[in-house]
């Protein structure tokens, strides 16, 4: 590639809406451009990186025994209705009608389509196992697209799905993919952790997220440096604290206080002079159509996944204001746990404290010294607290380290959720018909590109890891007007090409400083600088990451770089 002909529009300044380094740099260095919210053009440099990321993924997936397929991205609604997800997937799924008025979606994921393929073709245990993958576009109408390619609405994903006759075989493949993913991210030069992740409604212990460690990551993880335990903070196992034995001896008498116009937690805290964590807040959820109140300390919200888990995978949503007043008979915002006619669940941390402040079920009044057990009954305790760094590792007790991370991959043992719903069965050795056991495995290809930058940049620009750099080498003649410089540069350029090294020649007629700036910004791992010393048969090789410069003989440059 010759820079003079290349489409590499670099910019001095990043656009105002770019918040994090990878987003700013990918735009400034000419890798991507925004079309609309969450929609991006990937320019030639970006496409080269995507190609390299895909090459690594493809090589490792093939090596692991998976087979590549190409599935449609336009999915007929019938398949999603069969799996039960047409109505529950939510607004992230883009739906539309064809000219005949039939419903379709743009693929946010492909369990339905692949299960449909496999149920039509696989009949016997002899046809199993199978691991099929594709690399292509996914559409998710994210509520808050942001950070460029990191959370886009249209993006590239590698998604694989495996099919098995037995649970053991599904688990064998799960660990095969775990190893494969580890190799993929290692080859790409990324610092990552595979963390135990939430399995949501499917349950079980077979879900890992591959997180690239970065301060700007939207996810949080904890890990133990001693025993290797690692989990997303949502998933991390808890030591459930025992309720203190002498709780009741510390109860104070219940007191109702007039609190005019005091409503928010910070206002209550100030007015009654109690710490915010001693204020009990009631949140009303609708669980399988029935109301449940959840008592939490202070401002903590209950994450629905946690509540769902505590309730064994039931359908859960927050109640509307109207529902709250209908079901409790109390005004919203002043809910009292006393005499509440719906079941009360409590955050486990509530067991640790006594004498809470709570609403009085009446406008402008609060209750002081409310205690569960004496004043109100708790149906069950749920754990909504987060595991944090510094807390003991659930496996070995050493202090946990907490970091932020970017989810670049996710592996999941699905079991028979889709095969049962969609009738994907096989006949086993004894002639018995059984649902196929499945797993699914995703990698966000375009997100990897952003995550790699998030981990590899400095004040001058991107510093690509070699395996996924758009070019491995840039040859920079400091002055193309000087015949000898130009000639040697051309020679090195074609020599490198002959040796299958991805190289770009900056043959632009521009000042050297300008070219060096672009080379640093774009982040190509090696710069071959061809200057005055060519007269002595010498060029300079600069390593982008370290800034180290080495003088190398012209005849030895290719060897030096291979
Ligand atoms: P997130 O938690 O970030 O929303 P997810 O858990 O919804 O991601 P999965 O359904 O597990 O995503 O999809 C597999 C992979 O696809 C993710 O691990 C991630 O790398 C990538 N991915 C998901 N959503 C996006 C997006 N909006 N933009 C870019 N990549 C994405
Ligand atoms: Mg998501
Ligand atoms: Mg996720
Ligand atoms: Mg995920």
UniProtKB/TrEMBL annotation:
<dbReference type="InterPro" id="IPR002316">
    <property type="entry name" value="Pro-tRNA-ligase_IIa"/>
</dbReference>
<dbReference type="GO" id="GO:0006433">
    <property type="term" value="P:prolyl-tRNA aminoacylation"/>
</dbReference>
<keyword id="KW-0547">Nucleotide-binding</keyword>
<comment type="function">
    <text>Catalyzes the attachment of proline to tRNA(Pro) in a two-step reaction: proline is first activated by ATP to form Pro-AMP and then transferred to the acceptor end of tRNA(Pro). As ProRS can inadvertently accommodate and process non-cognate amino acids such as alanine and cysteine, to avoid such errors it has two additional distinct editing activities against alanine. One activity is designated as 'pretransfer' editing and involves the tRNA(Pro)-independent hydrolysis of activated Ala-AMP.</text>
</comment>
<dbReference type="Pfam" id="PF03129">
    <property type="entry name" value="HGTP_anticodon"/>
</dbReference>
<dbReference type="InterPro" id="IPR023717">
    <property type="entry name" value="Pro-tRNA-Synthase_IIa_type1"/>
</dbReference>
<dbReference type="InterPro" id="IPR036754">
    <property type="entry name" value="YbaK/aa-tRNA-synt-asso_dom_sf"/>
</dbReference>
<keyword id="KW-0030">Aminoacyl-tRNA synthetase</keyword>
<dbReference type="InterPro" id="IPR006195">
    <property type="entry name" value="aa-tRNA-synth_II"/>
</dbReference>
<dbReference type="InterPro" id="IPR004154">
    <property type="entry name" value="Anticodon-bd"/>
</dbReference>
<dbReference type="GO" id="GO:0005524">
    <property type="term" value="F:ATP binding"/>
</dbReference>
<dbReference type="GO" id="GO:0005829">
    <property type="term" value="C:cytosol"/>
</dbReference>
<comment type="similarity">
    <text>Belongs to the class-II aminoacyl-tRNA synthetase family. ProS type 1 subfamily.</text>
</comment>
<dbReference type="InterPro" id="IPR036621">
    <property type="entry name" value="Anticodon-bd_dom_sf"/>
</dbReference>
<dbReference type="GO" id="GO:0002161">
    <property type="term" value="F:aminoacyl-tRNA deacylase activity"/>
</dbReference>
<dbReference type="InterPro" id="IPR033730">
    <property type="entry name" value="ProRS_core_prok"/>
</dbReference>
<dbReference type="InterPro" id="IPR007214">
    <property type="entry name" value="YbaK/aa-tRNA-synth-assoc-dom"/>
</dbReference>
<keyword id="KW-0067">ATP-binding</keyword>
<dbReference type="InterPro" id="IPR045864">
    <property type="entry name" value="aa-tRNA-synth_II/BPL/LPL"/>
</dbReference>
<dbReference type="InterPro" id="IPR050062">
    <property type="entry name" value="Pro-tRNA_synthetase"/>
</dbReference>
<dbReference type="Pfam" id="PF04073">
    <property type="entry name" value="tRNA_edit"/>
</dbReference>
<comment type="subunit">
    <text>Homodimer.</text>
</comment>
<dbReference type="GO" id="GO:0004827">
    <property type="term" value="F:proline-tRNA ligase activity"/>
</dbReference>
<dbReference type="InterPro" id="IPR044140">
    <property type="entry name" value="ProRS_anticodon_short"/>
</dbReference>
<dbReference type="Pfam" id="PF00587">
    <property type="entry name" value="tRNA-synt_2b"/>
</dbReference>
<keyword id="KW-0436">Ligase</keyword>
<feature type="domain" description="Aminoacyl-transfer RNA synthetases class-II family profile">
    <location>
        <begin position="33"/>
        <end position="465"/>
    </location>
</feature>
<keyword id="KW-0648">Protein biosynthesis</keyword>
<dbReference type="InterPro" id="IPR002314">
    <property type="entry name" value="aa-tRNA-synt_IIb"/>
</dbReference>
<dbReference type="InterPro" id="IPR004500">
    <property type="entry name" value="Pro-tRNA-synth_IIa_bac-type"/>
</dbReference>
<protein>
    <recommendedName>
        <fullName>Proline--tRNA ligase</fullName>
        <ecNumber>6.1.1.15</ecNumber>
    </recommendedName>
</protein>
<keyword id="KW-0963">Cytoplasm</keyword>
């Amino acid at each position: 590639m010759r820079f003079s002909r290349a489409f590499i529009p670099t910019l001095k300044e990043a656009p105002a809406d770019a918040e994090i380094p990878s987003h700013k740099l990918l735009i400034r260095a000419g890798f991507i451009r925004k079309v609309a919210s969450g929609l991006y053009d990937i320019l030639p440099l970006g496409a080269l990186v995507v190609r390299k990321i895909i090459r690594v993924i493809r090589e490792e997936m093939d090596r692991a025994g998976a087979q590549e397929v190409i599935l449609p991205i336009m999915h007929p609604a019938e398949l999603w209705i069969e799996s039960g997800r047409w109505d529950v997937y939510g607004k992230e799924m883009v739906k539309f009608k064809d000219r005949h008025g039939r419903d379709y979606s743009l693929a946010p994921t492909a369990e339905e389509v692949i299960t449909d393929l496999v149920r039509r073709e696989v009949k016997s245990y002899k046809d199993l196992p199978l691991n099929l993958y594709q690399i292509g576009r996914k559409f998710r109408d994210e509520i808050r697209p942001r950070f460029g390619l990191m959370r886009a609405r249209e993006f590239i994903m590698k998604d694989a799905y495996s099919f098995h006759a037995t649970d053991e075989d599904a688990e064998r493949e799960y660990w095969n993919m775990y190893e494969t993913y580890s190799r993929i991210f290692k080859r790409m030069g990324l610092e990552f952790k595979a963390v135990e992740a939430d399995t949501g409604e499917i349950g079980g212990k077979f879900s890992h997220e591959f997180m690239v460690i970065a301060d700007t990551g939207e996810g949080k993880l904890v890990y133990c440096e001693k025993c290797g335990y690692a989990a997303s903070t949502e998933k991390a196992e808890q030591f459930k604290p025992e309720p203190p034995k002498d709780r009741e001896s510390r109860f104070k008498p219940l007191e109702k206080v007039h609190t005019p116009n005091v409503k928010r937690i910070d206002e209550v805290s100030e007015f009654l002079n109690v710490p915010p964590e001693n204020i009990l807040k009631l949140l009303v959820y609708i669980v399988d159509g029935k109301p449940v109140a959840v008592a939490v300390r202070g401002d903590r919200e209950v994450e629905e996944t946690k509540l769902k888990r505590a309730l064994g995978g039931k359908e859960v949503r927050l109640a509307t204001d109207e529902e709250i007043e209908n079901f409790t008979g109390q005004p919203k915002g002043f809910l009292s746990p006393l005499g509440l006619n719906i079941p009360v669940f409590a955050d486990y941390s509530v067991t640790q404290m006594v004498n809470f402040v709570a609403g009085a079920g009446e406008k402008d009044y609060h209750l002081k010294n409310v205690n569960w057990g004496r004043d109100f009954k708790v149906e069950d305790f749920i754990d909504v607290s987060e595991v944090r760094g510094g807390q003991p590792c659930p496996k070995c007790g050493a202090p946990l380290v907490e970091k932020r991370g970017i989810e670049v991959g996710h592996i999941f043992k699905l079991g028979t959720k889709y095969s049962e719903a969609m009738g994907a069965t096989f006949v086993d050795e004894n002639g018995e018909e059984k649902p196929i056991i499945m797993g699914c495995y995703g990698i966000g290809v375009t997100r990897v590109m952003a995550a790699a930058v998030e981990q590899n940049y400095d004040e001058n620009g991107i510093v690509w890891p070699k395996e996924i750099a758009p070019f491995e080498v840039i040859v920079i003649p400091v002055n193309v007007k000087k015949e000898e410089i130009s000639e040697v540069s051309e020679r090195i350029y074609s020599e490198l090409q002959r040796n299958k090294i991805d190289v770009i020649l900056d043959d632009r007629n521009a000042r050297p400083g300008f070219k060096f700036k672009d080379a640093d910004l774009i982040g190509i791992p090696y710069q071959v600088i061809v200057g005055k010393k060519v007269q002595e048969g010498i060029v300079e090789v600069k390593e982008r990451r370290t800034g180290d410069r080495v003088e190398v003989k012209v005849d030895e440059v290719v060897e030096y770089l291979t």
